[in-house]
Amino acid sequence: MRKLMLATAAVAMFATTGIAVAHGIEGGKNAKAVVGAFTATTAANTQTRSCTTSDGKAITTTSATYTGTATGDPDLTGAATFQVRSTINTTDNVGVVEGRLKIDAPGRDTAAQFSAVYDHGTIAGLASGHAAADHTSLLANISAAYSPTGGLTGGKIGGGTAAGAAVEITAAHCAATKTVTERSEAKGTVSAVSATSITVGGLTCTVPSALSSKVTALKVNDRAEIKCSLVSGVNTLTGVEARH
Q1: Which of 59, 62, 142, 220 sits in a 20 to 30 Å window from 89, CA-based?
Q2: Three-class SS of residue 163?
Q3: Helix (H) or strand (E) holding 214
């Protein structure tokens, strides 16, 4: 698992609008600006894993496919599919979102790989691939609001995408969350008993409803053994047995 740290620098983008690049005469290139918008909120094949790093950061990794629509220039208009893998430090609310986008444009699909920084619910990054037009490459800034459950909304391909935030990716080891439970037990004479509380050998425990029938079957001066655990600061009965 990877550890994510918020950096102070902004992500450097190659352009403020999407650029479609085509090979021209004698190896030259032509470039034109294109703009698109998209929404993809229908999720499928969602897989989520979570853990906590050794320094206490909660990390959630999600793989999913989101479908929706894209509009804009002809190469950026059509049914849209985003195959996404996100890794988010939910403690600090930063991370990375990467994957592949496909737009079912007239002719052939527009398709690109993208990598973006996630920062408090939004992503900003770079997409690189090919446009629907023959012999045309696509290099574009990409941004959107993103959540693993809600997908991508308010998405932009080009159109003056903001630079966004930056993160550092380093190796980290996830550790299982450890819960320490305080337990106690006593064996001896019942000195007090009711449907909600029992005292044995000087140990008093609150009685949950699931054990009330067993507790009310006992009376003062009976011998019993009780076991209790500390639950939300309350010593709570977990087991009771009559002893002779």
Answers
A1: 142
A2: coil
A3: helix 212-216
> Taking 90 as the threshold, does the pLDDT of residue 33 lie above it?
no
**Looking at the DSSP assignment, which residues form a beta bridge with residue 59?**
51, 89
Pick the more confident residue, 82 or 30: 82
Phi and psi at residue 210, to the nearest 5°: -65, -20
Q: Any residues with CB less than 8 A from the CB of 55 and at least 6 apart, and which?
A: 3, 172
Residue tagged 């459950």 (tokens): 149
> 116: closest CA among 70, 65, 155?
155
Tokens, residue 106: 């007239």
Residue type, 215: V
CB 132 within 8 A of CB 79: no
SS3 148: coil
Q: What is the pLDDT of residue 113?
A: 96
Closest CA to 20 of 125, 120, 116, 135: 135
Per residue in 149-189, pLDDT (tens digit) is 999 999 999 887 666 665 555 666 666 555 556 889 999 99
Q: What is the pLDDT of residue 56?
A: 85
- Cα separation, 49 vs 89, in Å, equals 12
Q: Which residues make Cβ contacts (< 8 Å) with residue 157, sequence separation at least 6?
A: 18, 34, 35, 36, 37, 38, 70, 72, 76, 127, 140, 141, 142
